[in-house]
Design goal:
The protein is mainly alpha-helical and about 110 residues long. It has a single domain, classed as Four Helix Bundle (Hemerythrin (Met), subunit A) (Up-down Bundle). Helix content is about 65%, strand content about 0%. Helix 1 runs antiparallel to helix 2. The two termini are about 20 Å apart. The model has no long low-confidence stretch (mean pLDDT about 80).
Length: about 110
Amino acid sequence: METAKKLFEARRYAHACFHAQQAAEKAFIVARLHRIEHSNGLVELYEYVREFIKLERADKLPVLSAFYTQARYPNAGLLRPSKEITSEQAREAIETAGGVVDAIKPLIKA
């Protein structure tokens, strides 16, 4: 999350979105007691933990999940992710990922 926030501050929105997605993905995997799931899809990963983790904005997971490819690969739908992903999209990605991380942190410390 720290990297996503720093990239946002540097106005590197595509990279901020990618790192926000990665933070949420890692949080889901850690919440699953270190069992590595073979998926980068946050919606699918949430299904593994939704019985004991409730997210306020789970409806935002599909958008955040899409940044795994869109922010990295120009041929994934955006010609220039660095130009086409906006600050608002990056802000929302960081907020969504932060919600995932915050929901899972208490489980990690337990």
